[in-house]
Automatic annotation (TrEMBL):
SMART domains for this protein: YceI
Ranges of residues in domain Lipid/polyisoprenoid-binding YceI-like: 36-200
Protein name listed in UniProt: Polyisoprenoid-binding protein
Signal peptide bounds: 1-17
Alphabetical UniProt keywords: Signal
UniProt-listed InterPro entries: Lipid/polyisoprenoid-bd_YceI (IPR007372), TTHA0802/YceI-like_sf (IPR036761)
Length: 204
């Protein structure tokens, strides 16, 4: 009886899983569906990396980003991107350090709870890449930043049936220019931002 139940369970699992593995993503950026998109918060992440005393690289993450994207592959220069990230979510897997980073000597999350990036210019640099320049507001300071973005793929999410775009992006800022100067330059001023983002198309 147990063997029969186990076989039935495996068969049912295969039936459920099969449609999920059958999904095929489209990596052709020219075929992206134009429209308005909303950031999929659960599947997007901002990571920062600094040099730690010249000994090693150290990184952490900012989960919980939210935002919107307006995109038409035939008119890429008209792209509009607006993303806000809560700084209080910073995670380094070190609880003591996380508490320090949200404090007044670092990010001061109580006074400046979010960082925000609003695009001002998008320039195509390749078949699936673009430079996205915009204003980054962090720690109460706004400065221009350019992100090098790469389109990964588009597909219908098999779980929620939403047409979804995937992107990766990188950029470098000097944290002291935003007033975050603790331990600089022993902990590097240059901070690398690495972003993975999924955007779901909204009903027109």
């Amino acid at each position: 009886m147990k063997r029969i139940l186990a076989s039935a369970f495996l068969a049912a699992s295969f039936v459920v899983a099969a449609p999920l593995v059958a999904q095929q993503a489209n990596t052709n950026a020219a075929q992206i569906e134009a429209g308005a998109y909303r950031l999929d918060t659960s599947h997007s992440l901002v990571r920062f990396t600094v040099d730690h005393f010249g000994i090693s690289e150290f990184f952490g993450t900012f989960p919980g980003a939210a935002g919107t994207l307006s995109l038409d592959p035939k008119s890429l220069s008209a792209t509009k991107l607006d993303v806000t990230v809560p700084v209080s979510t910073v995670s380094t897997t070190n609880a003591k350090l996380d508490e320090e980073l949200v404090g007044a000597e670092w990010l001061d999350a109580a006074k400046f709870p979010t960082m925000r990036f609003v695009s001002t210019k998008v320039v195509k640099t390749g078949a699936s890449s673009a430079d996205v320049t915009g204003n980054l507001t962090l720690h109460g300071v706004t400065r221009p930043v350019t992100l090098k973005a790469t389109f990964k793929a588009a597909a219908v999410n098999p779980m929620n049936k939403a047409y979804t775009l995937g992107f990766n992006a990188t950029g470098t800022i000097k944290r002291t220019e935003f007033g975050v100067s603790k331990y600089a330059p022993l902990v590097s001023d240059e901070t690398v931002l690495s972003i993975t983002a999924a955007f779901e198309k909204q009903p027109s």
